[in-house]
Amino acid sequence: MRGSAPRRRYVGARGLIQIREQLSDRDLGVIRQVVELRLMSARQIQALHFPNGAHLSEASATRARQRVLARLIRDGLLASLRRRVGGVRAGSAGLVVAPGPLARRVLRLDGPRRRAYEPTERFFAHTLATSQIVVDLTLAGREGLLDSLEVQAEPSCWRQFASLSGRRLLRPDLYLALGAGEYELRWFCEVDQATESLPVVLRKCRLYADYYQSGNEQAKHGIFPRVCWIAPDETRAERIEAAIARDRSLPERLFLVTTARQVVGTLSSYK
After folding, report:
1. Which residue, among 233, 207, 39, 64, has the nearest Cα to 131 in the 3D structure?
2. Is the pTM of this model over 0.70?
3. Distance between CA atoms of 179 and 70, rounded to whole angstroms?
4. Where exactly does CATH 1.10.10.10 map onto the chain?
5. Contact 256/237 with Cβ under 8 angstroms?
6. Which fold has domain 127-267?
7. Going residue by residue through the chain (271 aa), what tens digit of pLDDT does each one get?
8. In b/e form, how buried is each residue of 137-176, taking b as 16+ CB within 10 angstroms?
9. How far is CA 176 from CA 40, 134, 195, 199, 224, in A?
10. Most CB atoms within 10 A, among 112, 170, 204, 257?
C-alpha cells in the first residue's frame, strides 16, 4: 500500500535484530495489531495503545502517538496511506496505516509479504469498519463488560471445506471468542457496508449453512459459532434480517443481525 514512508535499502538479519531491540512492547503491540487487521486509523491505534489514562491529557496522548507512528513509518514497520479518514482536513487523527515492508519480518511471521498498493475505497472503508469492531470490543473488555476476547481477522479466520462441488472457501470478516460471565460465546462476523445486494448477502448465508452442514468446525472445535451480520444502520439491519427470515433453507438461530452501534451488547449477550 503506497504511503509516505521513504524507500529503504534491504535490511539484513543483523540490521533487523538492531531494529527489533529498539522496539518497546507497545511498538510491537501496534505493529502486530496492524498486521492482523491490515488497516488501522491513528484514532483506533490511539484508543487502544495510547489511552488517556496513561498520559497527562488527551493532547499528550496524541503527541505520543504521533511520535511513535512517525518513527515506525520512518523505519519501514508501518506504511501511511494517501487516503485519510475524514479527508485532508482531519489532520494526524485521520492518518491510516498499513503494515510496512519490515513488519512481518520484525515479528518473525512466516508467509509471503504482500506487495504495496493503495487500497480501493470499498476495501478501505470495510477494513477500517472491521478494525473498529475489534477496537470497540477490546475497550469493552477493559471496562469489564467482557471477560476475555480472542480475535482472528482475515485471512486467519477463513475456513476451507469439502462439498459435492469440490473445495470451498468461507471468508468471514472476523472470528471472535468472547468470555461473558460463565459463557464462552463464539462468532463469525460479517461487517456489512450496504454495498452488496440482498441476494449476495443470502448467498453468503447459504455458504455458512453449507459449512455448518459439513461438520468441520464442530469436529475441530466442538461447536459452530453463530453468524452475526453487523449493518451500518437499523434500516439495513431490518432488511437483512427480513431476507434471512424469508429463506427457509437457512438453519434457525444460526444468524443474528445487529448494527455497529449495538455490536458490543449483541455479541456479549447470551440468547
Report:
1. 39
2. yes
3. 35
4. 13-119
5. no
6. Trna Endonuclease; Chain: A, domain 1 (3.40.1350)
7. 445 444 556 777 787 888 889 999 999 999 999 999 999 999 999 999 999 877 778 899 999 999 999 999 999 999 999 777 765 444 566 899 999 999 999 998 766 566 566 788 999 999 999 999 999 999 999 999 998 889 999 999 999 999 888 899 999 999 999 998 888 999 999 999 999 999 999 999 999 999 999 999 999 999 999 999 999 999 999 999 999 999 999 998 999 999 999 999 999 986 6
8. bbebbeeeebeebebebbeebebebeeeeeeeebebbbbb
9. 18, 9, 23, 26, 12
10. 257
**Grid cell for residue 8:** 529503504
